[in-house]
Amino acid sequence: MSTRKTFQKMKKKKHYKNFESTELLQNKHKVVTLQNASDQILEFQTKITEKLHEEPIIENNKDEITASKNKLKQVKRNRTDDEYNNVIHIKRIRPFIPVELDSEEL
Fold first, then answer.
1. Does the model's pTM come out above 0.70?
2. In a domain, 57, yes or no
3. Which domain holds residue 60?
């Protein structure tokens, strides 16, 4: 998009008050050469490989998962009445729809 079109769009949006010259728009969008882009990609890839080698992969044991589930069940069972009453129970409110019955159906 040329600077002229962007300037016209800025005029429509009324952002042109701070706009002094077309140089600002040209400096805003930096030109990225292929060499710079490839260097950035290589840096990013090296960072990713370092992160992968640093952090060990954690495997979940099925026994630990079942033990934690059982603990949760025990906590739910051992709840006192006061704790149970403090928990807000949300019930679905069904709208009341009046149905007119004919005398024959009664």
1. no
2. yes
3. 3-86
